[in-house]
Amino acid sequence: MTVPLTAPKESILEAEQRVRRKDLSRRWRLFARGAALPILILAVWQTLSATGAISEQLFSSPWLILKQYAALTLSGELPHHLRISIVRASLGFLLGGSAGLIIGLLVGMYRRFEETVNPTVQMLRTVPLLAITPLFIMWFGFGELSKVLLISLGAFFPLYVNTFLGVRNVDAKLFDVARVLEFSRFRQMTKLVLPAALPNILLGIRLSLSIAWLCLVVAELLGADTGVGYMIQDARAFMQTDIVFVGITIFALVGKLSDSIVRYLENRLLRWQDSYKG
Amino acid sequence: MQPVLEIERVNKTFYGEQGTTPVLQSVSLAVHEGDFTTIIGPSGCGKSTLLKIIAGLDLSYEGSVQLRGKRIERPTQEKGFIFQEHRLFPWMTVEQNIAADRSLRDPGVRKAVDELIELVKLGGFERAYPRQLSGGMAQRVAIARALLRQPEVLLLDEPFGALDAFTRGHMQEALLDIWQTNQTAMVLVTHDIDEAVFLSTRVVVMDARPGTIKAIVPIDLPYPRSRTSRAFTELRTLVLNRLDHRAELEQDVYSI
C-alpha cells in the first residue's frame, strides 16, 4: 500500500477552515463566559426596580439609565461635557506624562541626576494628591489651569517611576555592544535605551492614564461648571440617580477604551518579546 | 609589510582587595593582513582580557597596542567584536540588527546588508526576531553586524563556546568561508584545541598566572582541513604539548 506524502490540497483547505471555525467559536465562548456575570447583575437589577423591590429614585434601573443616555446624547449635553473632560484629561496626561518620561529617562541614564532629583520626587510621591488639591485651587483658582495641573501631577509619577525602572533594567551587556558599534548618544537613546525600556514605559502610560482619569473626577467634583464630573455633581444635587450612573459608566467606558488602546500598542510594539503568554 | 595589529610588551595587573595579581606579562604579538590567529590557553591566562584590550574595551594596561600604527584608545568600528553570547538587540529583526544604528532606507546600507545576509546564509530570515533564531543563526547575525562596519580585524571571544558540537562544526566552516571571501584578519580566543587547529593559520598558546605567550605554532595545512588526517592530529598533539607539558608523557594517547 502506498501512503501519499502530502495531503491533497482540498483537505488542507478544509482543515484550515475547520481550525478557523473552531477558533471563532472558542472566542465566542470566551466572550460569553466573561459577559455572563454582568448580564446577570443587570437582569436582577432591572427586575428588582421594575417590581418596586428597590427604589427607582435612589437606585435607578438599567432601562432608565439607557433612556437617560439617549436623552442626554440627543440634547448634546453629554457630548459637550465629555469633550471638555477628555480635553482636560489629555492635556494633563500629556503634560505630566511627558515630564515623567523625560525626567525618568534622565534619572535612569545619569547617576548624578538621579542623586539630585530622585529623593525629592520620591518624597513628593508619598503626599496624597487630595491633600494638595486645596493648594492648587488657592493658587490657580477654579479655572482650567488648576484642573490640568492637578491631572498632570497625578500622571507624572507612574510614568516617572516606570521609565526609571525600565532604563535600569536595560541589559548592561548591550551597552558594550553600543560602544563597540560606536552608537552616537542620540542613537544610543533611540536604538537601545528607549526600545529596551519600552515594556516598562507602556506600563507607566497605562497607570498614568488611569490616574489622569481619577484626578479628572476629583478636579471636576470639587469645582467646575462643565465636564462629566460636574454633570454627576449637578445630578446628585437634584437626586437624578440615572444621570449619575450615566456619568459613572461613561468614565468607565472611556477609561477602558484608553486602556485598550495602550494594550493594543503593547501587542504591536512588543512583538519581539519572548515572555510567558499564560 | 606593516602589520594590521601590533601588540608590544603589554602588561596588565589586577588590583584587588587581596593585593595585586598579574594578568598579562610582557605579551607581544603582531597580526598581519589576512591572518587567522587563534589564542588558546587555560582559563585565567588572560586571553579574553587581551582581546578586550585590543578592542579598546579595557584601557588600563602598560605597553603598546596599535592598529595600523595608531594607538588604540577606545572601541571603534575598525575592530569588530564578537562576544560569547550573540548580544543581538531583541527588539530588532535580523536585518535591523545588522544595520543597527544605520538606516536600511539608505540604498548603500540596504545593499551591503543584503549581501551579508547572503554571506552568512540567512536568506529568508531577514524579518525574524532574535528569539526565533537558533544559537548558531544568532551568532551569524552578530558576525554580519560586525562585518557591515568593514573592520580591519575581527575579534572573536569564544564565539562558539555556547553552541552544541554539531552547530559548532557548521559555524567553524561558515567562519572560514567568510574569512576566505572577505580576507578580514581574525583573532579568535578559544579553549578548544580542535577548533584552533581547524581554523587558524597559527595558534598562540598562552600560559596562566601570569598570562604569557608560551609558544606560537604555525599551522601550514591547506584548507579545507580534514580533522582526521595524520598531519592534523600531529599538529593538534603539538599544540596540546605546548599547552600542557604533562601531556607529553601521555603523547601516545593523543596521537592516535
What's the arrangement of secondary structure elements?
The complex is a heterodimer of chains A (278) and B (256).
Chain A: H1 9-50, H2 56-59, H3 62-75, H4 77-109, H5 111-125, H6 129-140, H7 144-168, H8 172-180, H9 185-222, H10 228-237, H11 241-269
Helix pairs in contact in A: 3-11, 4-5, 4-7, 4-9, 4-10, 6-7, 7-9, 9-10, 9-11, 10-11
Chain B: E1 5-16, E2 19-31, E3 36-40, H1 47-55, E4 62-67, E5 70-71, E6 79-82, H2 94-99, H3 107-119, H4 135-148, E7 153-157, H5 165-182, E8 185-190, H6 193-199, E9 202-207, E10 212-218, H7 230-243, H8 251-254
Parallel strand pairs in B: 3-8, 3-9, 6-7, 7-8
Antiparallel strand pairs in B: 1-2, 1-4, 4-5, 9-10
Helix pairs in contact in B: 3-4, 6-7
Brief account:
The complex is a heterodimer of chains A (278) and B (256). Chain A has 278 residues and is an all-alpha fold.
General shape of chain A: flat
Number of domains of chain A: 2
Query: Which class of the largest domain in chain A in CATH terms?
Result: Mainly Alpha
The largest sheet of chain A, given as strand count, sense and whether it forms a barrel, is: none
Low-confidence stretches of chain A: none
Task: Tell me what portion of residues of chain B adopts beta-strand conformation.
Answer: 25-35%
The count of DSSP E runs of length 2 or more, i.e. the number of strands of chain B, is 10
Kindly report the spatial arrangement of strands forming the biggest sheet of chain B: 6-7-8-3-9-10
Pair with the biggest interface: A-B, 20 and 23 residues
Cα radius of gyration of chain A in angstroms: 25 Å
CATH topology of the largest domain in chain B: Rossmann fold
Question: How big a fraction of the residues of chain A is strand?
Answer: under 5%
**What distance lies between the first and last C-alpha atoms of chain A, to the nearest angstrom?**
44 Å
What is the oligomeric state here? heterodimer
Organism (chain B): Paenibacillus phyllosphaerae
InterPro entries (chain B): AAA+_ATPase, ABC_transporter-like_ATP-bd, ABC_transporter-like_CS, ABC_transporter_ATP-bind, P-loop_NTPase
Domain ABC transporter (chain B): 5-233
Protein name (chain B): Sulfonate transport system ATP-binding protein
